[in-house]
Design brief:
By secondary structure, this protein is α/β, with parallel strands linked by helices. It has helices spanning about 30-40, 50-60, 75-85, 100-105, 130-135, 155-170, 185-190, 225-235, 245-250, 255-280, 300-305, 330-345, and strands spanning about 15-20, 70, 90-95, 110-115, 140-145, 170-175, 200-205, 220, 290-295, 310, 310-315, 325-330. The strands form 3 sheets. The chain has a 7-stranded mixed β-sheet, with helices on both faces. α10 runs parallel beside α12 (about 330-345).
């Protein structure tokens, strides 16, 4: 059986209060659920292979040309399609970070180098990466901003320096912005304004976290590189985005008030969780996304699971160790429950 290495494994733990997956705490908007339900009347037909309605809505939402957009069965499909399209021989990823980058790279026989993010630096990406990009023979770099599982943002100036070097040296730079919706000033950190004219820059985004649509699988990428777009499209199977996912996506992009309400809730509850964890004596990172990274007892995951609460044990991330945890920011009463359970198991 395939090993499950991510958060959100409610299938093996069906009755827990799940803090292990970083999903919008407000849940899926009712209009999105209804759009998916309504689409079931049409499932005798193939979904639109061109995803025309969805891409038009996305272009308006992101304020980019339709031609810059590519949609997938979740962001994960696009990661694998991108790597298959480029087939890099050597690539660089951060450590710790999302496991699928390295998994996709290794699937094509790529040598994976890791830029180790150190605890003493607050797990922030350092400018030493610039020298590595200048000197090493790399064909691809994956960055996650804010990073998963730490929630730490990359310095905007450093990020733009990385873009410049990668473009100059013909290194494909993939920046995962899936969690940028939940930081206080996303417009300061997004690289969307850098896309025009760049042949080696690709931004990765998804509906998964923003609209709590993990089960429908809908992600998208943005690039101005026509060559890269054509290569990726050849890697994707026809009809890779289902009709319910496309219709739900169109409906979701109208939910601006919902997203803003979620952001305000997350900012408030993130501070509440950080304060609560610090009061328990845990070192807490300055996470900026809709999750909080902290260190606790090595057996905290197991103890909380016995109490019906599941958090993300991050010890299987490269560069981390037993006792590293990530928790999602949820509704206030749920966050209170988590802190109560933590205080209980620590007695």
């Amino acid at each position: 059986m395939k090993e499950y290495i991510h958060g959100g494994d409610i299938y093996r733990h069906p009755d827990v209060l799940d803090f292990s997956a970083n999903i919008n705490p407000l849940g899926t908007p009712p209009a999105v659920v209804q759009a998916a339900k309504d689409s079931m009347e049409w499932i005798c037909h193939y979904p639109d292979a061109c995803q025309e309605k969805l891409k038009q809505a996305l272009a308006a939402y992101e304020q980019v040309p339709v031609e810059w957009l590519i949609c997938g069965n979740g962001a994960a499909e696009l990661i694998f399609a991108l790597v298959q399209a480029v087939k890099p021989k050597r690539a660089l990823v951060m450590a710790p970070t999302f496991a699928e980058y390295a998994q996709a790279l290794e699937a094509v026989g790529c040598e994976v180098d890791r830029e180790i993010l150190k605890k003493e630096d607050g797990f922030t990406l350092q400018c030493t990466i610039l020298e590595k990009l200048q000197k090493e023979d790399l064909q691809m770099v994956f960055l996650c901003n804010p990073n998963n599982p730490t929630g730490i943002l990359i310095n905007p100036k450093l990020l733009r320096e990385i873009v410049t070097i990668c473009e100059k040296r013909n290194i494909y730079l993939v920046v995962d912005e899936c969690f940028l919706d939940f930081v206080s000033e996303p417009e300061v950190h997004t690289l969307k304004g850098e896309l025009e004219g760049k042949q080696y820059l690709f931004l990765l985004k998804a509906f998964t976290k923003r609209y709590a649509m993990a089960g429908l699988r809908l992600g998208y990428g943005i690039t101005s590189s026509e060559t890269l777009m054509e290569k990726m499209e050849r890697q994707l199977q026809p009809w890779n985005v289902s009709m319910p996912a496309q219709e739900a996506g169109v409906a979701a992009l109208k939910e601006t008030a919902y997203v803003e309400k979620a952001r305000e809730l997350i900012f408030q509850e993130q501070a509440f969780l950080k304060d609560g964890l610090k009061a328990c004596g845990y070192p807490v990172l300055d996470s900026q996304a809709n999750y909080v990274f902290f260190e606790g007892e090595p057996d905290l995951y197991e103890k909380l699971l016995e109490e019906g609460v599941m958090i993300r044990d991050c010890s299987n991330y490269t560069g981390l160790w037993k006792g590293c945890y990530r928790i999602a920011v949820k509704l206030h009463n749920e966050n209170e429950q988590l802190l109560r359970k933590i205080r209980k198991v620590r007695r």
